[in-house]
Design brief:
By secondary structure, the chain is α/β, with parallel strands linked by helices. It has a single domain, classed as Rossmann fold (3-Layer(aba) Sandwich), CATH 3.40.50.720. The chain has a seven-stranded parallel β-sheet with strand order 3-2-1-4-5-6-7, sandwiched between helices. Strand 2, helix 3 and strand 3 form a beta-alpha-beta unit.
Length: 253
């Protein structure tokens, strides 16, 4: 048996983190790098150059607009061309568009579903297929949400997509566990990122949210790094199909 500290090391591993330009993705990419991984840092609208530069070493920046159906394949090919393989995939890229359900446009619905769910499946399939072909173990981590469990308000596409992420995670775990590929998800609670700026700026909603969080504060992106390192490392080799909630106690209340 490995000693406990080494179980959490990622030395020699190649990790792809989508949506790593800012926020949760940047914190996850940094955490994986600190554990020893070489990280491919993806940005959706722009390459995650600042994150890659801050990490240093062999970290590299990539860009692909995952609202396009062919972007996942291009991103996968570019990362494989650069690093030769992917050992850890973190599907973090996501978006949210808010509107009343009765007014929600089909274009908005399709865009959110493409970025948050379809591209996640595409990358899981590409990376999983390659791991199976190489007969190599691997880790896939999908970023779900509290709205994988709850319905939310004025975010029907986001809630549907994140519910789908949780179920996709379980479906893939069932198929690939015997291949030594663990597929898990992290469901962040209320984190202070650009996606939640509207909620933070709304005095009433901000107060209501804080009153329900037992920890009494919004999450910081760095609060997610430990969970990602655990699920990416050998410490979680017998954990699969799980949705790990990191929410300061929100769901407990």
């Amino acid at each position: 048996m490995q000693n406990m500290p080494s179980l959490f090391r990622l030395d020699g591993k190649i990790a792809l983190v989508t949506g790593a330009a800012t926020g949760l993705g940047a914190a996850i990419a940094t955490g994986l790098a600190q554990a020893g991984a070489t990280v491919a840092c993806h940005g959706n609208r722009r390459a995650a150059t600042e994150t890659a530069a801050a990490i240093g070493g062999q970290a590299a920046a990539f860009q692909a607009d995952l609202s396009s159906t062919d972007a996942a394949s291009r991103l996968f090919s570019e990362v494989i061309a650069k690093f030769g393989r992917i050992d850890v995939l973190v599907n973090n890229a996501g978006m949210i568009l808010r509107d009343q359900a009765e007014d929600y446009s089909l274009d908005a619905w399709q865009q959110v579903l493409q970025v948050n769910l379809t591209s996640v499946f595409q990358l899981c399939q590409l990376v999983g297929r390659d791991m199976i072909t190489r007969n190599a173990p691997g880790k896939i981590i999908n970023i779900a949400s509290l709205l994988s469990f709850q319905g939310g308000i004025r975010v029907p596409a986001y809630a549907a997509s994140k519910g789908g992420v949780a179920q996709l995670t379980k479906a893939l775990a069932n198929e690939w566990a015997g291949r030594n590929i663990q597929v898990n998800a992290i469901a962040p609670g209320y984190f202070a990122t650009t996606n939640t700026e509207a909620l933070q700026a709304d005095e009433t909603r901000n107060r209501q949210i804080l009153e329900r969080i037992p920890a009494g504060r919004w999450g910081h992106p760095e609060d997610l790094a430990g969970a990602a390192v655990f699920l990416a490392s050998a410490a979680s080799n017998y954990v699969t199909g799980h949705v790990l909630v990191v929410d300061g106690g929100w769901l407990a209340r």
